[in-house]
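Q: What structure does this chain adopt?
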Amino acid sequence: MLNNIKIYSSLLVILCTLFCCKNKNNKGEYRHTTEIGKGLYLEVYRTFGSGAFGGDMISQYLTDTLNFRVCIGEFDNSIEHFSYINNEDTIEIQKLETSDGGGSFHTISKKIYDLRKLKELQNISKLEIETISDKYLFTNK
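A:
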């Protein structure tokens, strides 16, 4: 009896470890890549599928495939999405949300990033991908 309890406890710990631990370098299930400007691409991954219970969690990565890859963020595709406006040396990223479940969207946040600063990252071959931060914001200097 005591031996069975040890075996079941060990199996429970192993199963919890396998199913509960998430690899932070795992981007999720690859969906597609879209060119959003000359030499600028958006990689889309599904990180969590809700099935019939709601929208999927989607992660988006901005890359030029040579110099940089940064995580833009994650959103629930049933109520949110990102919008991109490429302006040669800058890219404007807007996070949009709907409050009525699919009708009109409104802007939650808007930032403009300097593509020259992003290209200086040279992180394309690194295992861990950096999340885009304000240090890459465009300034008129």
